[in-house]
Specification:
single chain, alpha+beta, 4-stranded antiparallel beta sheet, 2 helices, globular
């Protein structure tokens, strides 16, 4: 059973491309599944509408451009020791991208009661 997260925590944000793969499957999905298996409090994947990274090539969702590699942002928040324990998996998974850590204060983490 998961306990509510309160107080100081770490937020891990990973920036990758939508077309990034891990063994022929979306890299974002692999990261989410590994975070779930590691028992992290939660993970969300956000699809960007426009952006660029180290390549300086702009990726956009505008109709005329029809990019097939939009930016993705994967965000997870948990206790510092749990997030830091997950970092070695990123070394294995993310060949190109950016990962950042920042300290956050959790002000509300409500957990839904199990269905009866």
């Amino acid at each position: 059973m998961m306990t509510a997260l309160t107080g100081t925590a770490l937020r891990l944000t990973i920036f990758i491309g939508e077309s990034d793969l891990w063994h022929h499957k979306p890299l974002s999905s692999e990261i989410v599944h590994r975070a779930h298996k590691a028992g992290l409090a939660g993970v969300s994947v956000f699809r960007g509408v426009e952006g660029y990274g180290a390549s300086s090539r702009i990726h956009t969702a505008r109709l005329l451009s029809l990019s097939e590699d939009l930016p993705l942002c994967i965000v997870m928040v948990d206790a510092a020791e749990r997030i830091r324990a997950f970092l070695p998996q990123l070394d294995e998974l993310v060949g190109e991208g950016l990962a950042i850590l920042d300290e956050v204060e959790v002000v509300r983490h409500a957990i839904r009661a199990a269905a009866r």
